[in-house]
Structure formats: C-alpha cells, structure tokens
Amino acid sequence: MSAPVISGAENAPAMPAVPRKERAVPERSAVDAVYRQTVSSLGDGVCPRCRGRVTVDATTDGWSRDQGPRSLTYGFEYACRDCGGRWTTTVGETVLDHPAVAAFYHDHGVDLRDSHVWELEFAATDHDTRVRSRDPLRLELRPRCGNDELVLVVADDGSVVRNSRHTKFTARDTWFDRPAADAGRN
Ligand SMILES: [Zn+2]
Region Disordered: start and end of each range (predicted)? Predict the structure, then answer.
C-alpha cells in the first residue's frame, strides 16, 4: 500500500528546505524553572515527586529553608500522603501563579517571569506578610509597586479568598502641596 498523495502535490515543484531557526528560550535558570514547577504542583495538591496527593496547612510558628536558622515566620507546609515528602513555601510563593498577582505586576510593567523566584521580595521573604485573623486563620500579603499595594487575604489552605488594591497617597499629597516654583530648590 502506497503512501497517500495530497491532490496536486505530485506536480508541485520541490520546496527548498527552510533552515531551522534556533529560538532562544527566555533566559531563566533551570533551578528557577524546577522551583516554580514544584511550588505550582504543590498549589494544585499534587506531589512534585511522586504525583500523589498532598495536604496543606498554614504555619505561623517560624521555619527555615535547608535546616538553617528559622528566618521565616509564615508559610504553608505541604506533606505527601504517598511518599512522605514535605515542603514549606512562603505565602508569596503559594500565590505566585494567582492571576491577581500577575495582573498587579503586569499593570506596573513587571513580568514576574523575568526574575528568579528568590529575587522577588514578596515571594522570597515574608516581610510583606502578617496574620489578619486567627479564627479562621487568614494571612495577609501586601506586595508593593511604587505607591500601589496589592492586598491578598489567603486562607489556611493557600487559597486567595480576597484581593484588592490600595494606593498610598501620603508622598503624593506632600508633593502636590508644594508650590511648583519651590520644587527644584528643596
Ligand atoms: Zn509524594
């Protein structure tokens, strides 16, 4: 049985071979890519190691990365029911993929994919995180861009239950109150 022939193709002149272009993959390290996949998988409730189911719980007791001194206060602890794997992430890492986070930074001209996760302060640290309420436990994360602030309220299962934006006007009011003629002298 011969291969099927596309009608008309048998008489068409041979097409010159198009040289394959090697496209540059956006520059980001493999470590960052694996890290993002791990965090994303945990957020989906899937073990990044064995694809089993993971449970999640918020912690406010302090934790550390790599068995070092406890330098972080808030986070989410994940445990795999199948392989026993355990991970802890910051609140910022947990919400890294949330559309409100991407949109907030995008509106300020920042593509979060252009940086390593550990270069994003809201994700690498918990400086912008606090407890909003204890019962039920709600953590609040407030990443900032200029005078704008994104306020995310995160439940103890890592889901974002509320998000809003604030603008800090303090600096702007001072600047506006100043007569334009004096602006260059001070
Ligand atoms: Zn597992």
Answer: 1-21
Q: How far apart are CA 104 and CA 3, in angstroms?
A: 54
Q: Count Cβ neighbours within 10 Å for each residue of 144-166 and write b for 16 or more, e otherwise.
A: eeeeebbebbbeeebebeebeee
Contacts of 107 (CB under 8 A, 6+ apart): none
Which residues on adjacent β-strands are paired with residue 30? none
Q: What is the pLDDT of residue 12?
A: 59
Q: How far is the CA of 152 from the centre of ligand 1 (A)?
A: 29
Give the pLDDT confidence of 79-111 residue by residue, as tens digits.
Answer: 999 999 999 999 999 999 999 999 999 999 999
pLDDT bucket at 181, cuts 50 / 70 / 90: very low
Per domain, the residue ranges of the chain are 30-170
CA 61 / ligand 1 centre spacing (Å): 24
